[in-house]
Amino acid sequence: MLDGRGALRRRAGLRLWLSGGWLIVVLVCAAFAPLIAPQDPLAQDLMLGRLPPVWMAGAEPGYLLGTDSLGRDVLSRIIYGARVALLVAFVAGTATCLVGSALGLAAGFYRGWVDRVVGRLVDIWMAFPPVLFAILLIAVLGTGLTSIMLAIIVIDWTRFCRVVRSETLNQAQMDYVQSARVAGFTRARTLLAEILPNVLPTIVALLTLEMGIAVIVEAILSFVNLSISTDDPTWGGMIAEGRISIYQAWWVLVFPLAALFLTVLSFAQLGQGLRDRFDPVLR
Amino acid sequence: MSAFLEIRRLSARLRGTPHRLLRSVDICVEAGAVRGLVGESGAGKSMIGKAVLGVLPKVVEVVEGAIVLDGDDLLAMPPAERRRLVGAKTAMIPQDPLTALNPSRRIGPQITDRLTDILGWTKARAATRAAEVLEEVRIPEPARVMRLYPHELSGGMRQRVLIAAAFAAEPKLIVADEPTTALDVTVQKQILRLISEMQARHGTALLFVTHDLGVVAKICDSLSVLYAGKVVEDTSVERFFAGPAHPYSAALLQATPRHTDPAGSLMPVSRAVLDSVTAEIAEADAGWVSHG
């Protein structure tokens, strides 16, 4: 048993280090983009179009990951793109988490009409295809970062709501909840002080997952040109541009895709790792 | 001795159905005495405990009766006041020590929260008191245990913590809902002795829900035998073990295995006894319907 726990902890440790490490790199890139980026991400130079990455024949020094068809530096654009990705991840992810978790906690604990109203809302929500829903919302709200974040919140709160509700239902049946009620604590206090700490590990795991999803949604919307203006670098926008020239310049597509993939994967792994590490019940 | 808890003609049913769960139950617990509540699974013994503490599941609906705690009818007062009163005068020792402590909170606050937040004690006083009761239930190093999480304690230790928590605020009545059922047989005996000892020392009235007549013989002063939500016998422990008055109680007593019994001689409650007690209840129900 002890050995099993030790192995679990080591694996969780490695997972935390790798995913956390990558996310810190992305975070630093986003925060200090002007200092880190070797080139101006918007500077075009048609003479330098479709330069390959530095280790291939015909590369120019100073353009580490090559350039796109307009001669813009891929690495610098990825670094600047991290800003949009992380902003969306943190702001939209957190807001989605707050809205969904609050509704899920209330529905699972108070039951009755609260549960029925929230449950119906979730059912209706889930019947919409999410991407179409997002595009529809952007059409109504107009393009731009704020609209994207609003769209993510409006679409994804159900993900938190469903899971948090069922976890709350589980916890509400435990004897310790009954003990709190017998002791004379109010319902609100029981929910926040007794149940919430037990649901929190689930919420945290979901939150990091959601941050990854937010990054993907932003990329999808940039891909279909519904995000911010095309000049500003976003990973999704870069992937869309790279798709056109994939046979001539694969690096324009592959590097932003890799950044996107690693970031989303890291968010998911971070959640799992945190859960393994800090959930007192699993520990 | 005066009754500290008096349940009068308490009837309950499954909400919105005629299905009766409690049938005009009368139970009285004298101050400082131990009342056993025995019966088979589903007889309604836990439900009575829950009704007293105000934690009945929503599907159960009390249709009539009174629960008088220290002179106040709980069913007649507004919920907030009822919760305050129940919180101040009673406590619970739950059945399953594994789920009765909050897994993500340390032991200490789980005992002291109630003292500080509900009863208005200072933090220091509550912490001292918690250490004191933990000591009393023979938990070694109370100060250290208070900083632990429940999963770091064994089942027996957790049940001791729960007993300590129940006695911490010096309640006048404790409802113990099968407190030994989830434990190892060897631990059961210690826990039972501990509850009995604490009860006697603190002069707490105890409503002890169990299906184990052996436990009743050890700890209770009087007992109520329940069948299908009806009290079929209400008697003192001496009289009960000398010879129960009701045929169902007699059959229940007979069904309890003793280690002096020859092997393979388990006695179930006979069909005839069950039929007769069912008929008796049906008759009482008929009378109840025509009155109501």
Features:
heterodimer; A: 283 residues; mainly alpha; MetI-like fold; 10 helices; 0% strand; B: 292 residues; alpha/beta; Rossmann fold; four-stranded antiparallel sheet; 10 strands; 43% helix
Structure description:
The complex is a heterodimer of chains A (283) and B (292). By secondary structure, chain A is mainly α. Chain A has a domain of 194 residues: MetI-like fold. Chain A contains 10 helices and no strands. In chain A, helix 3 packs antiparallel against helix 8. Chain A is elongated. Chain A starts with a helix and ends in a 5-residue tail after the last helix. By secondary structure, chain B is an alpha/beta fold. In chain B, a hairpin with a 2-residue loop joins strand 9 and strand 10. Chain B has one domain: P-loop containing nucleotide triphosphate hydrolases (Rossmann fold), CATH 3.40.50.300. In chain B, 43% of the residues are buried. Chain B is globular and about 60 Å long. In chain B, 43% of the residues lie in helices and 23% in strands. In chain B, helix 3 runs parallel beside helix 6, helix 4 packs across helix 6 and helix 6 runs parallel beside helix 7. Chains A and B meet through helix 7 and helix 8 of A and helix 2, strand 6 and helix 3 of B.
